[in-house]
Amino acid sequence: MQAAHNSPLARHSGYLKTYRAIRERFSWKVLKEVVLRHVRECLTCQQNKAEHTLPAGLLQPLPIPKQKWESISMDFITGLPQVQERDCIYVVVDRLTKFSHFFAIPSKFSATQVAKLFFRDVFRLHGLPKTIVSDRDSRFMGGFWQELFQLVGTNLTPSTRKV
């Protein structure tokens, strides 16, 4: 292990290269687990670990709405304890006034069910917003929501944009 990972020739080359180097000469039942544990516990590797993801883009401010309920944000709060078969909260917030609606729903809901809830309890009271901001949740970005809001002339805006 020392020669394949920690030596100056090996240069702390990470799990995969270390595993392959050892596997060329040796084999035992839990080789992968032993190599993985050794690399994870290697202080040098942890201190010098390279970042393998792209840096996040700059946040872009959203324009301030001019009227109430012109722009709203929507999201889900999940992972809650189940009460009367509901363990999720659907949240709709007016971006100007911060007035909010909270709906307890089951976590196994469909986009159609949420759309009906939106039109019955938000649209009925406040009309259709010009823009809706949400995270990139598949429940919002799915084809149903895209088509629905295209038909009624509302823009569905993800809360984070790539720059």
Provide structural commentary.
- The protein is an alpha/beta fold and about 160 residues long.
- Helices cover about 40% and strands about 15% of the residues.
- It is built from seven helices and five strands, in the order ααααβββαβααβ.
- It has a five-stranded mixed beta sheet, covered by helices on one side.
Task: List the defining traits of the structure above.
alpha/beta; elongated; 163 residues; 5-stranded mixed sheet; 2 domains; 7 helices; Nucleotidyltransferase, domain 5
Describe the SSE topology.
Blueprint: H1 2-6, H2 15-25, H3 31-41, H4 43-47, E1 71-77, E2 88-94, E3 100-105, H5 111-126, E4 131-134, H6 138-141, H7 143-152, E5 155-158
Parallel strand pairs: 1-4, 4-5
Antiparallel strand pairs: 1-2, 2-3
Helix pairs in contact: 2-3
